[in-house]
């Protein structure tokens, strides 16, 4: 069994030196426990925050101990709580080949319903984030203009497509490369731009000349400032993430136009997907239906091997992924 430990806390951008590959034995289950051979593990932007030793909504990762995070795999030993050897389960002990956990903290998933990797993305945490953030937090209504940043990523690509499926009038996305912009158009976005091409404010004004009603923020900083500038009266923003500043040593200067919130009566609402579990059933039913009918597409970027998990994580921060970044073991 091999696992990835946090060797040191990154200052600014993480590097390969912050991680260590460690060999241990395959664990043996105690009563009520299971051993899972992980097939896919998730790397996610929020993990960067957990590498800092600061108080947050999730505790920091410990040094010289395995990292953790979403994973799916097959139960190879033990059992309990209705989970048996041979079942495929979703659980929270990624970053390792074999996970030992209480059966009660794993959730069985159906490998015949969807490829198992989907339970970490489109039918899992990032999919629910998009669904809940757009429909619940921002309360998007048919006919509205929606702007989403990080639009070619796991969350963003779902936000744009769900907005279209739910009757948005116009959907605009921003992403970090020409290939990603092309992909957004293929996914049905009405307009898309590469934020490296010039000020986001100008690109957004050109893409949504009549302003935006909903902003789904994955990026923060300059994107949030531009969105505030473009928002129509009573506009709403779901503040999901601010990846532009996760590796910053200093807090960003933007948004400098926050006072516009007053006159435009804007709502900027932060949220955590963990608070929206009540929507899960509705979300899975609706999204699985769209997938079956071919109305929704999802991308995955897959890196092979536990030893390459740190590279996958670093690549995610650098934007090397289209859709959900996953490590296959
Ligand atoms: P993505 O699949 O979107 O991957 C991250 C992407 O961020 C990269 O592909 C890159 O794409 C983009 N990026 C990196 N640096 C910058 C930058 N400086 N400016 C603009 N874009 C940048 O990740 P997820 O879909 O998993 O997560 C998206 C966001 O949602 C993150 O901010 C994350 O923290 C947040 N999140 C929040 C949750 C919540 O409960 N609130 C739950 C899940 C995710 P590009 O090439 O376009 O730059």
From TrEMBL:
Keyword Oxidoreductase among record annotations: yes
Domain Enoyl reductase (ER), by residue range, is 15-327
**Membrane-crossing segments per the record:** none
The record's keywords, sorted A to Z, are: Oxidoreductase
Asked if the Swiss-Prot or TrEMBL record annotates the protein with the keyword Oxidoreductase, the reply is yes
Highest rank taxon of the organism: Bacteria
Q: Which SMART domains match?
A: PKS_ER (SM00829)
Indicate what this protein is called per its UniProt record.
NADP-dependent oxidoreductase
Question: What is the native source organism of this protein?
Answer: Micromonospora humidisoli
């Amino acid at each position: 069994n091999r696992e990835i430990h946090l060797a040191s806390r990154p200052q600014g951008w993480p590097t390969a030196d912050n991680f260590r590959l460690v060999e241990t034995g395959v664990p043996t289950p105690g009563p009520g426990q299971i051993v899972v051979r992980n097939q896919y593990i998730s790397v996610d932007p929020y993990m960067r925050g957990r590498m800092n030793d600061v108080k947050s909504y999730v505790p920091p990762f410990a040094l010289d101990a395995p990292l953790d995070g979403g994973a799916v795999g097959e139960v190879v030993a033990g059992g309990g709580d209705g989970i048996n050897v041979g079942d495929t389960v979703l659980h929270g002990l990624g970053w390792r080949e074999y996970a030992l956990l209480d059966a009660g903290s794993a959730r069985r998933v159906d490998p015949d319903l969807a490829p198992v990797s989907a339970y970490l993305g489109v039918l899992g945490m990032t999919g629910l984030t998009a669904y809940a953030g757009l429909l619940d937090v921002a309360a998007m209504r048919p006919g509205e203009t929606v702007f989403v940043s990080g639009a070619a990523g796991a969350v963003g690509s779902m936000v744009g497509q769900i907005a279209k499926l739910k009757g948005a009038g116009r959907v605009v996305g921003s992403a970090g490369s020409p290939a990603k912009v092309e992909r957004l158009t293929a996914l049905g976005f009405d307009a898309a731009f590469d934020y490296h091409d010039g000020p986001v404010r100008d690109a957004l004004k050109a893409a949504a000349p009549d302003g935006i009603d909903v902003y789904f923020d994955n990026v923060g900083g300059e994107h949030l400032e531009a969105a505030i500038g473009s928002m129509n009266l009573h506009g709403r923003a779901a503040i999901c993430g601010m990846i532009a500043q996760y590796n910053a040593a200093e807090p960003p200067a933007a948004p400098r136009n926050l006072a516009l919130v007053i006159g435009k009566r804007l709502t900027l609402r932060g949220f955590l997907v963990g608070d929206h579990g009540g929507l899960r059933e509705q979300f899975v039913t609706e999204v699985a239906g769209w997938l079956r009918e071919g109305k929704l597409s999802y991308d995955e970027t897959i890196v092979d091997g536990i030893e390459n998990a740190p590279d996958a994580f670093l690549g995610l921060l650098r934007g090397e992924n289209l859709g959900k970044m996953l490590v296959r073991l």
